[in-house]
Amino acid sequence: MMNIVQRMRAKLGASMKARDVVRTQFLRYWIAQLTLGDGREMPDADAIKKMRGVLKEAKSGQTSFSPEELALIHEWVPPALGLDQIAEALA
Questions:
Q1: Number of Cβ within a 10 Å radius of residue 62
Q2: Is residue 24 within 8 Å of 9, Cβ to Cβ?
Q3: Which residues of 28-60 are buried (b: 16+ CB within 10 A; e: fewer)?
Q4: Could you tell me the residue ranges of all domains in the chain?
Q5: Is the model's pLDDT at 16 over the cut of 90?
Q6: How far apart are CA 42 and CA 72, in angstroms?
């Protein structure tokens, strides 16, 4: 199974071919952010945590990301579980 960075890399080519500038810049930015200094890719849990942090900042109004970029982050971050879903999973 591919991790989040590998999935982003796989979608980058199609984004470039479609000339989708916002998505291409988004993917390039996050691939760089989620790749560690030694070339290894950040684990999915850490990557999602980092992206959720950006969304949390955006809710408080402190972000440099555009609304389009925030919408793209939502595509990559799984929704948080509600209390009912957690209780159901534990049952």
A1: 8
A2: no
A3: eebbeebbeeeeebbebeebbeebeebeeebee
A4: 4-90
A5: yes
A6: 19
Residue type, 27: L
What are phi and psi for residue 8, nearest 5 degrees? Answer: -65, -45
- Tracing tokens 């998505």 back to the chain, one arrives at 23
Residue 13 scores a pLDDT above 90: yes
Of 67, 45, 9, the C-alpha closest to 53 is: 45
Residue with tokens 């500038």: 21
Q: Identify residue 71 by its one-letter amino acid code.
A: A
Residue 73 neighbours by CB distance under 10 Å: 16
Is there a contact between 35 and 41 (Cβ–Cβ < 8 Å)?
yes
Q: What is the pLDDT of residue 81?
A: 65
Instruction: Give the pLDDT confidence score for residue 87 in this predicted structure.
Output: 76
In one-letter notation, the amino acid at residue 52 is R
